[in-house]
Amino acid sequence: PGPTSFETRPDAEPGVIHTAPSTPRFVAVDAEHVYWTNTGPLGEGGDSGATDKPVDGAGTIGRAKIGATEGEDPEPAWITGASNPQGIAVNSEHVYWANAAHDTLKRGIGRTTVIDGGAVEQDFFPMREGTVPRGLVLSQSFVYFARDEVDQDGSLLSRIPLDGGEKESFVVGKTGIRGIAIDATHVYWASQSEEAIGRNLLTGFKTGACEANPGCENEYLKPGGTPFGVATAGEHLYYSVNGETPPNPGADLYRFQADGAGSCAKAPGCLTDLTSDSTDPNGAEVQGVVGASEDGSYLYFVANADLDGGGKATRGDCHSPLSKPSGSCNLYLLHAGQLSFIARLSKVGGLQNGDAVDWAGSEKETVSGDSHPKTALLSADGQTLLFRSQEKLTDYDNHGLPEFYRYRDGEITCATCNPSGASPTSAPTIATTSFPTFGPLAQAASVSSRFLAADGDRVFFQSTEALVGADTNGEDGCPPAGSGSQAFPACQDVYEWEAPGTGSCTVAGPGYSPLNAGCIYLISTGKSSEPSFFADASESGDDVFLFTRSQLVGQDTDQLTDVYDARIGSGLTAQNLPSPVPCEGEASCKPAATPPPPYSAPPQFSGPPNPKPKRPKKGCAKGKKGKKKACHGQGKKQHRHRDR
User: Fold this and answer.
1) pLDDT tens profile 574-633
2) Which helix (H) or strand (E) holds 352?
3) Which of 19, 338, 386, 431 fits as disulfide partner to 5, beta carbons 3.0 to 4.6 Å?
């Protein structure tokens, strides 16, 4: 029908007119014309603050004559000044439309005369704040329209006399009505949230709830999808289903190699479908990439398709968006041309408890203002994957709570499960999205912490569970997040999982847990009445940074949150000024160990010795340690020390 123009940025570009093609969406007809709604050029007008949103006042009502073979004399801007019009209807005297404006003062029903478009009334029937009009239809006496109560998550069906007057309304369900139609006896509506077509008798229209209206049926028809439009003609009801963009059934995973890379010898390069499955017309339905090694030889991804050739995988039903809390799908590894099924992952629980953040496209996923850090990480060589899942992937019964699992060489082990086998009461977490008292949430959330060492043999996490005997700050109860001024559980501590052969962890050693297939170590004190937080770790994992109010060295004399570096073998005695606190024997320096059966878990963890320092050592004698844990020894092994 032709373009329309509007000054979309009056503040930034005063006087500059922007033009865009018409985008007809809602249509109405009479004996001579076809009418349509058009949002107009998009931009930053009004208070929307976005360049891809409709601008208040930029919308138009267009019309064209109904010719024998095509529309004639199109007028794309027959009526101007509409604001994101979302419905249109016409009778012998007037054209009505619904203004779903960004500005609450411009929302409502507009109308004009059919003959010449004169006497335009954009606010023919204004609506209160929090209400957004959607569909629109006319009877011989009333204007019927649907409206979303945004602040109350509800949809209402309303009507007013054709010439204006008192409104009658009743509730039809949650927000999401997008189409409305009428016949001689009923008014019909399409509800996206209910995935149903509802209806009510025209003679039984009563203010209140649907149940108060005789003949009201919220689910008159269940079309098996998300309806958008609805219309009536004679004895039939017509509707569109999944009117909003459905998922692409192909969604395969592709690899591009430039000419000369790998086995590609074709200009400008080679494109390969990595998930081709000729037996499935729906395609692989790849949901996202979990991670890839630096050289691309190891690739982890999630898909709905059954790609393991008759193995344990079954077809899944995950779909976008990530926040949708339903569906399950398959985690795969592609390496050396071989595709391996790893585990079944679930989206139940959304981004808070579901597994979807494993394949988030960036370090964070923001939904309704909440930020969630990506919960999967690869070792540098790609052979080790750490990921989160609420599924029961080992013999440990996690009771549906998320745990962090380590995959390597075809084996899945649980790095964060309770070594005692006791049922969990809370889920472990990685770095908090907003560090205590530091910086805006948006800036803190954009930083992805290293919670897996580069070699894949050390994992760092936070837990409110007592995973070793030295963790006692939850014995008398753990005040939950939100208690008073407490934003995090009070007994939250920082832990490390270590693979056998790394640091001091050995299968035959006292700290080894068969259930975890590794050693669990406590990094924070486990005694503080305030939560401790994992911040980050060095590439090797030799340095672990944490936030805590605990006074871990003598130099720390305040009650404020400090940043510490728990460093293998490098504690600084000078931080215990004015003088080191002498040890009083091996027994008094070490905390009492109360390991869970059937093994003994040490209260601290150790690693390989550091290079010999160039200056004389200070501090405790061999086999001793200071009261503030600035240094401690256990035979010839090196331990982590806290530097503030």
Assistant:
1) 777 654 445 455 444 444 444 444 544 444 544 555 555 454 444 443 333 333 333 333
2) helix 350-353
3) 19
Q: For 588, phi and psi rounded to 5 degrees?
A: -80, -20
Distance CA 515, CA 291 (A): 26
* Total Cβ atoms within 10 A of residue 411: 9
Which residues, in sequence order, are CB contacts of 251 under 8 Å at separation 6+? 283, 284, 285, 286, 287
Task: Say which residue the tokens 């599924």 belong to.
Answer: 391
Of residues 336, 340, 342, 338, the one with CA closest to residue 295: 336
* Bridge partners for 177 per DSSP: 191
How many beta carbons lie within 10 A of that of residue 562, not counting itself? 18
Q: How far is residue 494's CA from residue 525's CA, in Å, rounded to a whole number?
A: 9
* Distance of alpha carbon 331 from the chain centroid: 18
Q: Token pair 């592609």 is at which residue? A: 334
Cis peptide before 440 (omega within 30 of 0): no
Q: Residues 6 or more apart from 167 whose CB is under 8 A from it?
A: 125, 158, 159, 160
Residues counted in the chain: 644
CA 569 to chain centre: 39
Q: Count of alpha carbons within 13 Å of 407, Cβ hemisphere only?
A: 24
The Cα 605–Cα 568 span in angstroms is 9
What's this model's pTM, rounded to 2 decimal places? 0.57
Q: Identity (one letter) of the amino acid at 526?
A: G
Classify residue 533 as exposed, middle or buried by CB count within 10 Å of its CB (0-12, 13-18, 19+).
buried
Which residue would you say has higher pLDDT here, 168 or 369? 168
What residue type is 310 in one-letter code? Answer: G
Backbone angles phi, psi at 558, to 5 degrees: -105, 180
Which residues does 495 contact at the CB level (< 8 Å), separation at least 6? 416, 428, 460, 461, 462, 463, 467, 520, 521, 522, 523
- Which is nearest to 131 in space by CA: 147, 144, 146? 147
Rounded to 5°, the CA angle 328-334-337 comes to 140
| Tokens standing for residue 386 | 């750490």
Query: Angle at Cα 290 formed by Cα 285 and Cα 291, nearest 5°?
Result: 130
Token pair, residue 38, equals: 């058009």
In the chain, the amino acid numbered 133 is P
Provide, for the chain, the percentages of residues in helix, strand and coil under a 3-state DSSP scheme, each rounded to the nearest 5: 5, 40, 55
Residues 6+ apart with CB under 8 A from 44: 8, 9, 11, 12, 50, 51, 55
Q: How far is CA 50 from the centre of its chain?
A: 21
User: Can you tell me the distance from the alpha carbon of 584 to that of 118, in angstroms, rounded to the nearest whole number?
Assistant: 97
Q: Which residue is listed with tokens 């969604």?
A: 251
pLDDT at 444 over 60: no
Q: Which residues of 275-297 are buried (b: 16+ CB within 10 A; e: fewer)?
A: bebeebeebbbbbbebbbbeeee
CA distance 398 to 149: 40
